[in-house]
Design goal:
Arc Repressor Mutant, subunit A; two-stranded antiparallel ribbon; 8 helices; alpha+beta; 2 domains; Chorismate lyase
Amino acid sequence: MIATPPNSQNALAASAAPVTDDHTDAPGPSSAVPQGTASASPATRLDTLPPSALTQTAAQGGAPVAGIASTAASPTFSPLYRQIKALITQSLESGEWRPGDVIPSEVDLAGRYGVSQGTVRKAIDELAADNLLIRRQGKGTFVATHHEDRVQVRFLRLLPDDGEMRPHVSDVLECRRVRAPADIARQLDLKPAEPVVQIKRVLRFEGPPVVFDEIWLPGAMFRGLTMERLAGYKGPFYAMFETEFGTRMIRASEKVRAVAAQAQVAALLGVKEGEPLLSVARLSYTYGDRPVEVRRGYYVTSHYHYQNDLS
């Protein structure tokens, strides 16, 4: 879970001073990565590995990773399908199969890893449940992407009360490189005062603004992210981060509470000072459970509600 956000009186206080960075205009770190392939490239078969090679704990989900020797003194057993799941996740993280790509068939993956097709199917079922893969009847299994509507809706939970979905427009107010405030650095696992990109924007749904977001991203991962690039991109921020910077948001942890609108936020959202707003503090993660975004949002809920489906 993320740290409790500052109270409403100082949540938007300017706690960071602008800094310069020689890499500001450099391209994103993964913008030159070639497109992934759907072929099942050679890989170490599980039945040729010593037991210790099947027991290293993966960073995501605690599943042991097959194919990498473990240095742990007391290895922990993991079901075979979870080891296959970890290997497929490694291929997703490395960019072997990029967002939107079709991955090899279950038969091909079974041959690649030296396991049964049923074992591969169970691993893919879990990855689909984790929203990392998407099955399409008659077409195959694809790497999930933030360019798809179903993925966008998963991370934007504000819905109109009348139930009619409308396209949203993002108005970027500010994008600058600053030194990370202490609480932001802690949440992003950065050193104090390390560079971050700070973004302020309002979101509207064919009408007045309904969301004000303040976002922080690790500076090293988002070199070259500027106001001009954000304003010129037609699509969700997460889709841009995925395509142009090679950083995919996998999951997020949120804290939601009711707050009174401060003067600055009230003016941006066109509401009265002190009017109730919904405050959503989010910490987003990429592969390996690495935190890559701190987001503080303020939502107008007079005609909208925050919906979360539990299963």
